[in-house]
Amino acid sequence: ENRWLDMLQPDLQWVGGLTACVKICNMAAAAGLEVCLHGGGRDAYGQHLSWAMPNTPWCEYFIGSDPGVPLEEVAQPGARVPRNSYLEFAPSGPGFDLGIEEDWLVPF
Length: 108
Known about the structure:
By secondary structure, the protein is mostly helical.
């Protein structure tokens, strides 16, 4: 009402996950506010939510790698890496496209 905020920046891991962030995005949209997830570009969950919600025009993205190491090699499973400052939505697998490796399951 008093417009103390211009946008909201919730963190998926601190506010209660995807469901809580969807609620926050919907409340923000009802108030005419935009949302930029805090660190939302670093994993598949934040990326998918940012693509899905109409009032999330930005996606905060930080990922670092050693010089000469492609970002694809250090990105979390299912996460896209930016090209020319944009994240392309092009999942190739089911769900969040996490790509679970068979050898990860061997200990279990």
